[in-house]
Amino acid sequence: MDLHSLVLGWYDGRHLYHWIxxxxxxxxxxxxxxxxxxxxTKREFAQxxxxxxxxxxxxxxxxxxxxxYADRHTEDVLLLxxxxxxxxxxxxxxxxxxxxxxxxxxxxxxIHAQNAERLNKAEQWVEWLRLHGEALAHLPHVPxxxxxxxxxxxxxxxxxxxxxxxxxxxxxxxxxYSTSEETETTGVHSIANLxxxxxxxxxxxxxxxxxxxxxxxxxxDKAGAYIPVCTRNAFLKYYTAAEDQQIHFxxxxxxxxxxxxxxxxxxxxxxxxxxxxxxxxxxxxxxDGQAEGAEQ
Length: 296
Hints:
mainly alpha; about 300 residues; 2 domains; two-stranded antiparallel sheet
């Protein structure tokens, strides 16, 4: 089979398209996959792709649940969740847009930011306060008199911003935009509080609380911007049981539902629980394993 026909077959095959797209997006070369396909039947090639994803991640379910912002596998696992969520949709012709993915500058983002410590410029403080002030009108639990007073103080700070004024209002707004358990720092960097967003997001919004980000995600989605499906679903509470819905907050129940869905989605690519977590491959081991698979 010539290369053109081979690639057309990959593109036409819904499952192959997604597995190959994911592997390329996470560092496997096109040349490597062409070599890997040589001498294999379509079924053998498909199974081999799934095995390569599993070998590349080298994670158990427990390890996935323990992933944090600092772990090198976190972004790959979240991408796999997005890809598999699209691939696994029954009766759908939708495909994950690797073109849009390649065009973006994707990064890990906190679904609910704990604070705005990374903001250190006056213009960033002004934008952050403006965004969070605008969203106050949509929080039904805030008493009207307190809302008006808080907006008045935000307006005053915007006219002559200082870091002291910003930090005081930031702490007050944290209480307004968070449930009681969200004000705790435990788990803020857990994968259960992380998603994929374009890092070209302005820094004030990147450090925003859940409600502000939720409103922005909806606005971008309506405008036709590319939002990864699981990012959109998380902010729209697709993974939260109906009885636990708190539309304006990212609660413990939200994090639990999101994490359970993530694990269920990527579970076909995880190692059995008895696999020791300290046997994860290093980057060099991964490359050696991929080269070895291509030579078989």
